[in-house]
Amino acid sequence: MKTNIDGKTKLLGLFADPCTHSNSPLIHNKSFQILGINMVYLAFQVNETNIKEAIDALKTLQMVGANLSMPNKRIAIPYLDRLSPEAELIGAVNTIVNDDGILTGYITDGIGYVKSLEEEGINIRDKKITVVGAGGAGAAICIQSALEGAREIAIFNRTLEKAQSIANKINDSTACKASPYSLKEYEALKREMMDSHIFTNATNIGMGRFENESLIEDDDFFREDLVVVDIIYNPRKTKMLEMAEKKGCKIINGMGMLIHQAAEAFRLWTGENMPIEYIKDIFNKEDIKG
Ligand code: NAP
Fold first, then answer.
1. Which CATH code of 3.40.30.10, 3.40.50.10860, 2.60.120.10, 3.40.1350.10 fits the domain covering 10-107+257-284?
2. pTM of the predicted structure, to 2 decimals
3. Atom 20 in ligand 1: which residue has the minimum CA distance?
4. Atom of ligand 1 nearest to the CA of 138
5. What does DSSP say about strands 177-182 and 152-157: parallel, antiparallel, or unpaired?
6. Ligand 1 pocket: which of 158, 165, 207, 240 to mutate (most atoms <8 Å of CB)?
7. Are strands 95-99 and 177-182 parallel, antiparallel or unpaired?
8. How far is CA 84 from the centre of its chain?
9. 209, 253, 208: which is closest to 228 by C-alpha?
10. Residues whose beta carbon lies within 6 Å of some atom of ligand 1
């Protein structure tokens, strides 16, 4: 179980600011230990002032790769050699793989979302999805869902332009039909939700200072056969998920997405499957916060 650091130990890192609250070092180091992989993962405080040097260091120190989080997901792109098709389309990177000095950027958030639904028996192929939120996570969810065969996506956002930009990318490059809406269009939101298989909250409403708020205030918006996803994982059950559960909906929180996006990065770096059940157990037992 224990990895002893020696002369052959390979380094991975998180480049983010802030970085000390991240669960990624725990997830990856526990996984290395259980699989006996001789790698370590550390968190480094990196932002716009030192992102270029940090990325250069991946090559200089022959690091296996890195994760990127705020504020680096977009600003790192000019320093990478290649992008995956998803990262190119989404315009953001959360995982870098160093392949003998060639740095490739990937985005695994959307894959994490799709896999977390599959794990609950829900396949997004041919489904209609309504998503609220067009930030980094919302963009990754919408674009990955479109790439994986979702039939139709209604994208609502407070700032309409961001929803429009994602919808344009989807309509231009996939067979999925995407429609952008302002979050102010509450009647349109109800109509689109009524017609959807899956509804997803990808905003901050439900966590932090918004913990006591629900994105949807009227429980008439929920019906028994709607799958309701909230990608927030702290708290595990947001007010919105509580409401949806009372109406009989299947509910899914953000833990699965968190673990599966990490598992996808782990697979890209190591070629191995992350011990997902073991990692989930740690989160459940220790009630780790996000
Ligand atoms: P982000 O890029 O900052 O986007 C935030 C989104 O929330 C935007 O759509 C924003 O709308 C919206 N929003 C914020 N405050 C709002 C308000 N008062 N009213 C209405 N909309 C509001 O952040 P992100 O990275 O996409 O993260 C969004 C959420 O997803 C967070 O709760 C985060 O914890 C969660 N997340 C979960 C995972 C996971 O693995 N489970 C991964 C990533 C993120 P505007 O565009 O109008 O500002």
1. 3.40.50.10860
2. 0.94
3. 158
4. 26
5. parallel
6. 158
7. unpaired
8. 16
9. 253
10. 109, 112, 133-138, 157-159, 162, 183, 202-205, 207, 231-233, 254, 257-258, 261
Rounded to whole angstroms, how far apart are CA atoms 50 and 91? 20
Catalytic residues, by residue number, are: 73
Domain residue extents for the chain: 10-107+257-284, 110-253
Distance CA 6, CA 80 (A): 29
Q: In angstroms, what CA-CA distances link 172 with 127, 178, 179?
A: 19, 10, 12
Q: What is the pLDDT of residues 54-108, one digit of tens each?
A: 999 999 999 999 999 999 999 999 999 999 999 999 999 999 999 999 999 999 9
Do domains 10-107+257-284 and 110-253 share one topology? The answer is yes
Report the relative pairing of strands 102-106 and 82-83 from DSSP bridges.
parallel
**Domain 110-253, classified CATH 3.30.540.10, yes or no:** no
Model confidence pLDDT, tens digit, residues 229-258: 999 998 999 999 999 999 999 999 999 999
Is the separation of the CB atoms in 69 and 46 below 8 Å?
Answer: no
Q: What single-letter DSSP state applies at residue 3? A: P
